[in-house]
Amino acid sequence: MALEVERLKGYLGVIPHLLDAKGAMWAAHWLSPRASCPCGCPALRRSKTAERKERTMTKKEKREVTEDTALEIALRDHPEWRRAWDQGELPDEVVGEDGQPVSPQAHLHIHAVVERQLAADEPKGVVAVASELQQLGVSQHDVRHEIGAVIAEHMWYMTKEGCLFDEGRYLADLRKVVESHR
User: Fold this and answer.
1) H-state helical runs in the chain
2) CA-CA distances (angstroms) from residue 28 to 9, 25, 38, 135, 173?
3) Which of 83, 113, 129, 147 could form a disulfide with 174 if both were Cys (CB 3.0 to 4.6 A apart)?
4) Each residue of 28-56: b (16+ CB within 10 Å) or e?
């Protein structure tokens, strides 16, 4: 958990509010939904029922992907950044296809968050959204970008408003993405 908080501070520092300790903990908790909050905050602590249910899930139902594995997948999806990443020379900012500035670090880490959510189907329903998008003709890579855009929006909103991750709102926003492709 501490590693994720530090990476958030370093790589997602483009969102200034994440730099405060509580904001970083909220975001880290959201990025790793099975982890408990390091400060013991009751608002972020998982219920005993949820923990028990998670322990009884079979391996087939749940596939854990480490942050490092998720980053490897993201780098495989973005070979244009691989060499710079390996040499520790990834630029802070590049110009995206739409002419807007993009942080490769933030982009890759959001890709990693998407991979981890899809691997565990947490929040429940994210895999169904990805499947529906693919059935509608959206490429696997673009599915990750669509989900990642919603993640980035929610991270910005959480830090701006100082609120917790709202799973229902997140899934509703993902459903809107699906509907926009119909």
Assistant:
1) 2-11, 21-31, 48-56, 67-77, 82-86, 104-120, 126-135, 140-161, 167-180
2) 10, 5, 10, 31, 21
3) 129
4) bbbbbbeeebeeeeeebeeeeeeeeeeee
* Distance between CA atoms of residues 76 and 114, nearest Å: 14
Whole-model pTM above 0.85?
no
Q: What's the rounded Cα separation, in Å, for the pair 11 and 111?
A: 12
Largest CA distance in the chain: 48
pLDDT tens digits, 166-177: 999 999 999 999
Structure tokens at 172: 């509703």
CA distance between the termini of the chain: 38
Element (H, E) at 102: strand 101-102
Domain boundaries, the chain: 66-180
Question: What CA–CA distance (Å, rounded) separates 145 from 168?
Answer: 20
